[in-house]
Design brief:
This protein is of the alpha/beta class and 554 residues long. The protein has 2 domains: 310 residues, 4-Layer Sandwich (Purple Acid Phosphatase, chain A, domain 2); 198 residues, 5'-nucleotidase,  domain 2 (Alpha-Beta Complex), CATH 3.90.780.10. Helices cover 26% and strands 26% of the residues. Helix 2 packs parallel to helix 4 and helix 4 packs antiparallel against helix 8.
Length: 554
C-alpha cells in the first residue's frame, strides 16, 4: 500500500509539474509605436522649449528646455530598445517653415536626420507642399534641387522612410501621390498604417504648387481603405493624420479637447484602433470614441510612446497605452551621429546665419492680442512697406501679411543682438513681395476673407498708417466696419485705387484670400526675409511699434 501510494503521489507530482507548461498562456506579442508630428526642421532645440503645468502649482505654466535632433535620437533609441518590436512614425509637417539651418538646404538635413533616427513611415502634412508637389517628390526620391543644385555637403539621397498620402490624389491619374498605406509585420502580426493630410490643405498652401493635386475627405478616404487592409490581414489599423485638436490641459492629458479631430475620429470605421494626429501644434493623449488619439506638440519637443499588446493565438489587439515623453535637451545626451550631421551643415550655413542684423530692445512676439494684432506682425509689415513704397519698387501705401507666415518670435538674448538666422526663423518661407493695385472695395472684400474659415479666422497683419475694426458678432461679408477702415487717418474710399503689398503666397490666393488674385499692375520685389533683414539693419535697435492698428469691437 505504501509503495502504491508513493507511486500515485509521484505521478500526481509529475502531472502537476507538467500542467503549467501545457496550460499556461503564451506571452503576449508587444509592439511599441513611437510617434512625432510637426517637426518643422528644428534640428536644434526650439528656443521656447515646451510649456507644461508647473508640478509645484498646477495653475501655472513653466517652460522646459526641449527638442533637438541630437536629443530626440537618443530618446528614440532608448525607447525602442525597451521593446522587442517597435516602429517610428510621424503625422506630417516634418519639413517646411523650418529654421535657417534646414531651410537653407531645402530641408535636406531634416530628411537625413530623421532617416538616420530610423523613421519608418510618415503622413504628408500641408507644409510638405510649401515648395510644391515636385519638391516633395524630390524629398522622397532624392536628387539635386532644380534651381539651387546640390548645395549641401554631399548628394541628397532622399528619405529612407516612406511618405504616405492616401487622400492626396493626382488629378491626371486619380491615384495617390504616394502609397495610401503601409503594412508592417511584428512577430507574425500585420499592422496597417494609413497616412493622410487634412482635407483643407488646398486652402492653406500656395495654389500654384498643388495645381495638379486634390485633397479628399479624411473620413471617406480612411473608411474606404478598411476592407482592403482587413483583406490583407491587418490585426490593427493605425491612422497617421495631419489634423488635430485643441486641449485645455497638460501635455499628457486630454482636458477639454475640441477641434476637427474629434468629429473625424468619431466618424472613422470602428476598425481604426489608434489615431496619431498633428497640425495644431498641441500635445495630448485622448480616448475619443473608444480609440486612443495622440499628438506630440511641435518642433521635436515630445515623442509619444504607444504600447500595444496582441493575443499570441488570435493575434487580436488586447490592450493599448500611450505616454508623451519630453525630449529634455538638458538631461538627454546628444546622439553623436546627429551631432556630426548637424556640424557638417553648420560649417556651410554659419557664415550666412551669423551675419549681424541689428538688435531688439525686447522680445518681438508673434502671439496676437484679442483683436488679432501681434508685435512682430507690425514690424514685419512695416518692413514690407518700407521695401516697396518707393515708386520704382511698387509705390505701395499699405502692406498686409498672413499671420501663418510669421513662424517664430525674435527673442531678446545676448544683449539684444539679432542675426540673420533669427530674422529667417521669423520669416522662413522666402516668399517674394508682390505690389498690386486694388480698389478700396477690394481691400474690404479681402479683409472679409479673414473669416473664410469662420472657426479659424486668419487676421491679416497691417503696416503703419492703415487700421481697421471688426465685429465678430456679424455675419459673412459684414464683419469689417467700413467707416473704421482708414489710411493715414482718412477713410478708405471704395472707388479709389491703392497700391498694396502682399507676399506671393497671398497674391495667388493662399489662405483663402482670393481677392488678391484680382490685383492689377503687379510688380514682384524682394524676398520677405530680406525686407525684414534690411529693416533691422536700418532701424535697430527695434522695439514694439505703437500698435492699435486692428480693433475688435464685439
Amino acid at each position: 500500500m505504501r509503495s502504491l501510494l508513493r507511486s500515485i503521489i509521484a505521478c500526481a507530482t509529475i502531472a502537476l509539474a507538467a500542467a503549467p507548461a501545457h496550460a499556461q498562456t503564451a506571452a503576449s506579442i508587444d509592439l511599441r509605436i513611437l510617434a512625432i508630428n510637426d517637426f518643422h526642421g528644428y534640428l536644434e532645440p526650439f528656443a521656447g522649449g515646451i510649456r507644461i503645468d508647473d508640478p509645484a502649482d498646477r495653475t501655472k505654466k513653466i517652460a522646459v528646455p526641449a527638442g533637438g535632433a541630437e536629443h530626440m535620437a537618443t530618446l528614440v533609441k532608448k525607447l525602442r530598445g525597451e521593446r522587442r518590436n517597435s516602429i517610428f512614425v510621424a503625422a506630417g509637417d516634418l519639413i517646411g517653415a523650418s529654421p535657417f539651418l534646414s531651410a537653407l538646404f531645402h530641408d535636406e538635413p531634416t530628411i537625413e536626420a530623421l532617416s538616420l533616427m530610423g523613421l519608418d513611415v510618415a503622413a504628408v502634412g500641408n507644409h510638405e507642399f510649401d515648395e510644391g508637389e515636385a519638391e516633395l517628390v524630390r524629398m522622397q526620391n532624392g536628387g539635386c534641387h532644380p534651381v539651387d543644385g546640390c548645395r549641401g555637403p554631399h548628394r541628397f539621397e532622399g528619405a529612407k522612410f516612406r511618405y504616405l498620402a492616401a487622400s492626396t490624389i493626382a488629378r491626371g491619374t486619380g491615384k495617390p501621390l504616394f502609397p495610401p498605406y503601409a503594412i508592417r509585420e511584428f512577430d507574425g502580426v500585420p499592422v496597417g498604417f494609413i497616412g493622410l493630410t487634412l482635407k483643407g490643405t488646398e486652402g492653406i498652401v500656395s495654389p500654384v504648387g498643388i495645381a495638379n493635386l486634390e485633397f479628399r475627405d479624411e473620413v471617406e478616404t480612411v473608411n474606404a481603405l478598411i476592407p482592403e487592409l482587413k483583406a490583407r490581414g491587418a490585426k490593427a489599423i493605425v491612422v497617421l493624420i495631419h489634423e488635430g485638436g485643441f486641449p485645455t490641459g497638460d501635455y499628457d492629458g486630454c482636458d477639454g479637447i475640441s477641434g476637427p479631430i474629434v468629429e473625424i475620429v468619431r466618424k472613422f470605421d470602428k476598425a481604426v484602433d489608434l489615431v496619431i494626429s498633428g497640425h495644431t501644434h498641441r500635445a495630448y493623449l485622448c480616448e475619443i470614441d473608444g480609440r486612443l488619439v495622440t499628438s506630440a506638440d511641435k518642433y521635436g519637443t515630445l515623442v509619444t510612446a504607444i504600447d500595444l499588446k496582441f493575443d499570441p493565438e488570435t493575434r487580436n489587439l488586447v490592450t493599448m497605452r500611450g505616454e508623451n515623453h519630453i525630449v529634455r535637451s538638458q538631461a538627454i545626451a546628444k546622439n553623436p551621429v546627429q551631432t556630426a550631421l548637424i556640424q557638417t551643415y553648420e560649417k556651410l550655413s554659419t557664415p550666412i546665419a551669423s551675419r549681424p542684423a541689428g538688435a531688439v530692445t525686447e522680445t518681438l512676439s508673434r502671439l496676437p492680442d484679442k483683436a488679432g494684432e501681434s508685435v512682430l506682425g507690425d514690424i514685419v509689415t512695416d518692413a514690407q512697406l518700407a521695401a516697396t513704397k518707393a515708386e520704382t519698387r511698387g509705390g505701395a501705401v499699405v502692406a498686409f501679411t498672413n499671420p501663418g507666415g510669421i513662424r517664430a518670435d525674435i527673442v531678446k538674448r545676448d544683449g539684444g543682438d539679432v542675426t540673420f538666422a533669427d530674422v529667417f526663423a521669423a520669416q522662413p518661407f522666402r516668399n517674394q513681395l508682390v505690389t498690386m493695385t486694388l480698389t478700396g472695395r477690394q481691400i474690404k472684400d479681402a479683409l472679409e476673407q479673414q473669416w473664410a474659415d469662420p472657426k479659424r479666422p486668419r487676421i491679416l497683419q497691417v503696416s503703419s498708417g492703415f487700421s481697421f475694426a471688426w465685429d465678430g458678432g456679424k455675419g459673412h461679408g459684414e464683419r469689417i466696419i467700413a467707416e473704421r477702415m482708414t489710411l493715414n487717418g482718412a477713410r478708405i474710399d471704395p472707388a479709389a485705387r491703392y497700391r498694396v503689398t502682399v507676399n506671393n503666397y497671398l497674391s495667388v490666393g493662399g489662405d483663402g484670400f482670393t481677392v488678391f488674385t484680382e490685383g492689377t499692375d503687379q510688380l514682384t520685389g524682394v524676398y520677405d526675409v530680406d525686407a525684414l533683414f534690411h529693416y533691422f539693419l536700418k532701424h535697430s535697435p527695434i522695439g514694439p511699434a505703437s500698435g492699435g492698428r486692428i480693433a475688435r469691437i464685439d
